[in-house]
Amino acid sequence: MAALPLGVYASAGKHATPRAARVAAAEFTKDGEPRLQSSGVLVFDPTSGQTLFAKNAEHVSPIASLTKIMTAMVVLDAKLPMDEAIELTSEDIDVVKNTRSRLPIGSHFRRDDLMRLALMASDNRAASALGRNYPGGLPAFVDAMNEKAKALALTQTHYVDSSGLSPGNVSSPQDLGKLVAAASRYPLITEYTTTGAVNVTLPESKRTLNFVNTNALVRNSDWKIGLSKTGYINEAGKCLVMQAMIANQPIVIVLLDSWGKLTRIGRSATEAEDLTQEALMAIHTQRHTYHPAEPLTPWVHAIARYKLIDYLRRTRASGADVPIDDAKEVMARDDHIGTESAYDLSRLLTRLPAKMRRAIQSMKLEGLSVAEAAARCGMSESDVKVSVHRGLKVLAASIAREKGTS
How many CB atoms lie under 10 A from the CB of residue 322? Predict the structure, then answer.
């Protein structure tokens, strides 16, 4: 894959500096291909089927919440009543990764609403309920997921649950590209994965909760995104599949296990997300510099590379802080907030008095309302509020002390 002229790489100005030229050259192999650090990459044109770039396209790895795309396809293929009310039960609580959900146990939602929240906000409790309420239960649902994978010739794909929390849900960039192409033919999937935000009124308490898309780009009107899904668990790293118009071409992008080294050395998921958005916005604003006759991937990679360097300089990071050559590519936001810190959270909670601990677990981890938490804990509503407030202050102080001694 031939490299583009240097002027195209520069995200600002018409001419690149000699130093920038050396940096850009260092990021390409002797064959002119970008040195991508993502474990698996696929970029292709779904209209022609032409692969624009691939790296480890047949490598099988965990796919986290990208699993939810297949979950939605199986639900829709079954033609189950989308307005049927489904109850969330204790079976839907995540005991694998201890991720939280704001959907209260015992509440009822339409199947359609659960699918929207599973796709848009990547809610694990919603995805679990969808699989559990399939004819034959979750085992039959997982069987249907794997049968659908076979029908789509996804030979490197296997599912074990409906949420993606288990690392046993695996696929390859090549298979995921096929999956995105197939899923794009489902109007509800394209609609729900690209919905920017939605307000949900809890049926029992009448509280209104706001849920936003785990891919912030879908809330940017300048982007024409046809389908999007993010994913994250420790074993999978940060993952993204997206179909979007880039340089007036429909492009499918699959990125697996990215930003892992940055987050492991202390760079937060929020910083990774901020940089992702900066890079993608730069790609959009500089789209006029792309020449259709040239390969797309080196152009995209160069812009992302320069945005990374600019970001690290701006945040005063040094080579000792972040080895740039180890930095992984632009990726999705962490849509399982708290997954990596679940152990630390559990450890911190044990330091609280039992009353505070129960109140925080009920309201902040399980998403119960004040009234529901009060009923569960045998406390008054005001006592629950006070316990949560004081408990969170104690936790904050504990975290601050640990940071001060680390």
Answer: 19
Catalytic position from the list 65, 171, 172, 228: 65
Q: Quote the CA–CA distance of 195 and 229 in Å, as a whole number.
A: 11
pLDDT in tens, 324-378: 333 333 333 334 433 333 445 666 778 889 888 888 888 876 667 788 888 888 8
pLDDT at 274: 66
Per-residue pLDDT at 29: 57
Tell me the longest C-alpha to C-alpha distance in the chain.
70
Set 38, 122, 162, 258: catalytic member: 122
- d(CA 55, CA 42) in angstroms, rounded, equals 7
Predicted confidence at residue 392, as pLDDT, reads 84
- Give the pLDDT of residue 104: 93
Which of 218-226's residues contact partners 24+ apart within 8 Å by CB, and which partners? 218/193, 218/194, 220/281, 222/284, 223/280, 223/284, 225/194, 226/184, 226/190, 226/194, 226/250
Measured CA to CA in angstroms, residue 140 lies from 67, 78, 161, 225, 294 at distances of 16, 12, 10, 33, 48
Q: Which residues contact 230 (CB under 8 A, 6 or more apart)?
A: 65, 66, 122, 214, 215, 238, 239, 240, 332, 333, 335
Least confident range of 172-186, 243-257, 345-359: 345-359
Q: Is 65 a catalytic residue?
A: yes
pLDDT digits (tens, 9 = 90+) for 118-160: 999 999 999 999 999 999 999 999 999 999 999 999 999 999 9
Active site residue 68: yes
What does the pLDDT look like over 302-329, one tens digit per residue? 787 777 777 766 665 443 343 333 333 3
Ordered by where they begin, the domains of the chain are 36-287+298-334 (3.40.710.10), 342-405 (1.10.10.10)
Instruction: Report yes or no: 241 and 176 within 8 Å, Cβ to Cβ.
Output: yes
Of 351, 379, 346, 382, give the one whose Cα is nearest residue 364: 346
- Enumerate long-range contacts of 20-25, CB under 8 Å, 24 or more apart: 20/306, 23/305, 23/306, 23/309, 24/302, 24/305
